[in-house]
Design goal:
Layout lengths: L2 H7 L4 H15 L8 H15 L4 H8 L2 H6 L1 H8 L10 H17 L6 E5 L6 H16 L5 E7 L2 H9 L1 E3 L8 H7 E3 L7 E4 L1 H4 L2 E5 L13 E5 L9 H13 L1 E8 L13 E5 L2 E4 L1
Helix pairs in contact: 3-6, 7-8
């Protein structure tokens, strides 16, 4: 067999890339310039193999068919999206949450739960970190109540997040008091796995959500929104579209947390800076 010819059949041609990248940018908001062609080709190879397809021409034809739109689009989203996350990632944010935000919201307590949203939760580390901090604050301040919603576009990572199962070394950033109280070790030591205890998992509601959808599905307004390391994948217009939508879902003076490389400088959106990459709704 001529393996070089087999490999060429699986190359992503320019016209196929343009069609795929246009769909991804329009429907997911993720920038897909020509420089990302090799990355997209590499990630989609596993889908061709899984589906038993010979080349990207067959894949594109299937993807945009009626069956493909129903069955393959979710799988394509799972391999295209980036899911980098950690417990207590960007720890200064959680210091600010603990020392400034929770005391402020508790002081303004109106009898309703504090509403928190992890807008791109990936495999769950961020919302579970929010649950750890909020639970500890509630222990110290009777009457403090909260609800946490966590969303992501990828159904695969949401399944992992709901399970709450992680490799043991993923817990390294977590204070030992939290590990002892809220995590269970696997009964099989060889697996090196831990699981979030049911009482903490129950504090987070996971939902599938495309942030580019015209309308958000929430009835309640949020006090705190973590939307970190998301906007870096969007162009300026889609960033503004997302921020305006988030603003409409937040209570006045609510807190928005962005990723370390994201900024609202120069954008006409209803937020004001209160700390590095932390903003308040105005």
């Amino acid at each position: 067999m001529d393996y070089s010819k087999t490999f060429k059949k699986r190359d992503l041609r320019d016209e196929e890339f343009k069609r795929l990248s246009s769909y991804i940018e329009t429907n997911l908001g993720i920038r897909m310039p020509p420089a990302k062609k090799v990355m997209l080709e590499s990630r989609l190879q596993k889908r061709l193999k899984h589906l038993g397809l010979n080349n990207f021409s067959e894949y594109v034809e299937y993807l945009f068919s009626k069956d493909g739109q129903e069955l393959e689009i979710p799988a394509m989203i799972d391999v295209v999206t980036t899911n980098k996350t950690d417990f207590f990632r960007e720890p200064a944010h959680f210091d600010y949450l603990r020392e400034k935000v929770f005391p402020h919201l508790h002081m303004k307590h109106d009898g309703k739960p504090i509403m928190l949203w992890s807008a791109a939760c990936s495999t769950g580390e961020e919302p579970y970190t929010l649950a750890l901090e909020a639970s500890k604050f509630r222990e110290q301040h009777p009457g403090f109540d909260f609800r946490i919603y966590a969303t992501d576009i990828s159904g695969e990572v949401l399944t992992k997040a709901r399970s709450g199962i992680y490799l043991k070394d993923r817990l390294d950033p977590i204070p030992k008091e939290f590990v002892r109280k809220y995590f269970m070790r696997s009964k099989n030591p060889a697996q090196n796995l831990v699981r979030v205890k049911p009482e903490l998992r129950a504090l987070v509601s996971f939902l599938r959500l495309n942030l580019m959808d015209p309308v958000l599905p929430f009835r309640d307004m949020f006090d705190v929104v973590f939307c970190r390391n998301v906007m870096i994948y969007f162009d300026r217009d889609r960033q503004k579209f997302l921020l305006e939508k988030i603003a409409r879902s937040m209570k006045p003076n609510g807190f928005l947390f962005l990723g370390h490389s994201e900024t609202l400088t120069g954008m006409d959106v209803p937020f004001t800076s209160v700390a590095a990459t932390i903003y308040r709704r105005i």
